[in-house]
Amino acid sequence: AQTVTQSQPEMSVQEAETVTLSCTYDTSESNYYLFWYKQPPSRQMILVIRQEAYKQQNATENRFSVNFQKAAKSFSLKISDSQLGDTAMYFCAFISGGTSYGKLTFGQGTILTVHP
Amino acid sequence: DAGITQSPRHKVTETGTPVTLRCHQTENHRYMYWYRQDPGHGLRLIHYSYGVKDTDKGEVSDGYSVSRSKTEDFLLTLESATSSQTSVYFCAISELSGYNSPLHFGNGTRLTVT
Lengths: 116, 114
Description:
By secondary structure, chain A is mostly beta strands. Chain A contains no helices and twelve strands. The N and C termini of chain A lie far apart (41 Å). In chain A, 34% of the residues are buried. Chain B is mostly beta strands. Helices cover 0% and strands 57% of the residues of chain B. Chain B has no helices and eleven strands. Chain B has strands at residues 4-7, 10-13, 19-25, 31-38, 42-51, 54-57, 64-70, 73-78, 87-94, 104-105, 109-113. In chain B, the strands form two sheets. In chain B, strands 2, 4, 5, 6, 9, 10 and 11 form a seven-stranded mixed sheet that branches. The relative contact order of chain B is 0.33. The chains are: A mainly beta, B mainly beta. The interface between A and B is medium-sized, with 29 and 28 residues.
């Protein structure tokens, strides 16, 4: 079974600075996807970024980028130029390759607070 | 945003009572899921559906049942609610079954069992 671990329960950052959220996972599979979801106080789950395991290039989406280290099974999220609207809980998630029926495995979450 | 509506948004119920949560989608997606969110656990899959009347269990299915009589509706029933089922429940949908088809989530239902 897969496991996803987020070792930072809470993080804080000043507005306009950069912050990195950590995520490690454990799997014996070679084909999978990794995701970061954002959950603001509204409770909505928002997909931030995703990474295909077979791609060596790190995914980027505007101010959000990942550092994907497949051998180390590490998938960190970097937020550049942090904004107040980035305040949220962030979840790392894993899904196996093939017909996986949306069976995401989530980490415990990291609460990020952006201070003005 | 994907058209997913969960109802009710909040509910308080007593131990031992049955509870049904509803998920309605307007996207005509084949695949639907129920997750629960608890502190320290992230989200965990309860049940999922891969078509009308086709459902299967997820990681934490004990005490829950589901039904899907129409493409657009996926119901989650707590047969006899317990305090351990106090949680936030999320419905999600996806167009495809594969790992490269992202999930879109509803806004959640906060259930409190007293």
